[in-house]
Amino acid sequence: MDLYKILQVPSDADVATIEKAFRKLSIKLHPDKANVSTIPSGHVETREEKEAREQRNNEKFAEIAHARDVLTDTKKREEYDRQRRRNARPESSNETKEGRRPHDRKLKLKRAGPLTIAQINE
């Protein structure tokens, strides 16, 4: 889950931009408003459907609140950015740390002996 994407802000956004994005999204996603605006039209929803819809709305709002809390706190944001960089993979390469593509090992294992019908059909 990318907190910057959740709030729809760039990774170099300042606190004021993050707060502005949060306010904009919170107006749309706040459970009191979203629970009314997301009622489906055309059919009567069951109690379970209503509870599931309201739960999704609560989770969406909790996500943006969490993103704002992390990104507006200097220490939490630094730690988040550190973890984000550590977990980032080069997008232009499919290579692992060993310099091989992840599927190379699987191909070598498949070629180690005679192929079975199941392997041919894969």
TrEMBL record:
Q: What is this protein called?
A: J domain-containing protein
- The signal sequence is none
**An annotated GO cellular component:** endoplasmic reticulum
Q: Which InterPro entries match?
A: DnaJ_domain (IPR001623), Hsp70_co-chaperone_J-domain (IPR051948), J_dom_sf (IPR036869)
Chain intervals for the UniProt region annotation (Disordered): 34-122
Q: Which UniProt keywords apply?
A: Chaperone
> Could you state a single Gene Ontology molecular function term?
protein-folding chaperone binding
UniProt xrefs under Gene3D superfamilies: DnaJ domain
* Domain J: start-end pairs: 2-84
Asked whether the UniProt record includes Ribonucleoprotein among its keywords, one would answer: no
Q: Where is the composition biased (Basic and acidic residues)?
A: 44-101
Biological process terms from the Gene Ontology for this record are: ERAD pathway
Basic residues bias: start-end ranges: 102-111
